[in-house]
Amino acid sequence: MMVRYYRCLVAAARIELPGAKPDAYTRTLRPLRQALPTIKAIDAGLYSQAQAAIAGYRATLSKDVLAKDDAIVRIEAAADKLEAAIAEAEAPRINKTRDYFWGWAASPAMHKGNYEQAADLMMKASSNLGTPNRPKGRDEDISSRVVRSAAQKRAYDSARYAIDKIEDKLVRAQAMLELAQEFGRWQVAERETAKTMAINALDLMEMTTPDPLSICIANNARFLLIYGAHPRVTLEDLAAGTVRLANRIPTRGADAKVGTPERTKFVTET
């Protein structure tokens, strides 16, 4: 079964070669390179094919992308991957590649339980991570990677520290709601704190115009209602805050029926 998997890895690399894309190479080369020692031990012929596929794929890479790949090899071979990733991020590089390695460095930091260090490392990257179509990329990654991981490990102080690093109000509010949910679930004695956090998150969301997905996330604050009233805020107040956000979803027109172009446009743009 494993031999079949390794053959698929080699075949995938060879299939991609004619139309190799610079941004896709890590998803192809990295797993194949990591599998090389095992492939060598079980099938000498396949090992030769794998080496040839890697060499052929690398020949398609630009100078900058090739340098990035060489750096990845150095990090993966290092005994201390955190220090190696930091060193690569600090080396003179184009901004997008430097951002990539700051993000990489955050992973071994989190693996060691250093969530605050992970947040600090990610803050060294540019706000869009060198990717124009992700203007909130750094904030989104801090939320989805650092805050979520810290909350799941119940490192709540570290999660709050990471949230404080998030600049975008909407992303910060979403992270606050997620932390409130984890905090309220496991820290029974601190549910009032969780409710306060959720209320503050809803207030933040009202300061911007959230997209429908964010509104759905905000609706998850309803779980707090089962915990009883907040000393300064009634259940109705908390529910009303969520409803106000939901009311911002525009109403679809009468012509936006299922299967029509108008319905597709409504779903896509809304």
Main attributes of the structure:
69% helix, 270 residues, 14 helices, globular
Structural class: mainly alpha
Provide the β-strand percentage band: under 5%
Main beta sheet: none
N/C terminus separation: 45 Å
Helix-strand topology string: HHHHHHHHHHHHHH
Residue-averaged pLDDT, rounded?
Answer: 81
Unreliable runs: 224-233
Radius of gyration: 23 Å
Please bin the fraction of helical residues.
55-70%
Number of helices: 14
Annotation, overall tally of beta strands: 0
Shape: globular
Give a description of the structure.
This protein has helices at residues 2-16, 25-42, 44-58, 63-77, 81-90, 95-111, 115-122, 137-152, 156-165, 169-186, 191-206, 212-219, 235-246, 261-269. By secondary structure, the chain is an all-alpha fold. The two termini are 45 Å apart. Mean pLDDT is 81; it is low at 224-233.
Fold blueprint:
Layout: H1 2-16, H2 25-42, H3 44-58, H4 63-77, H5 81-90, H6 95-111, H7 115-122, H8 137-152, H9 156-165, H10 169-186, H11 191-206, H12 212-219, H13 235-246, H14 261-269
Helix pairs in contact: 1-2, 1-3, 2-3, 4-5, 5-6, 6-7, 7-8, 7-9, 8-9, 8-10, 9-10, 10-11, 11-13, 12-13
In short:
The chain is mostly helical.
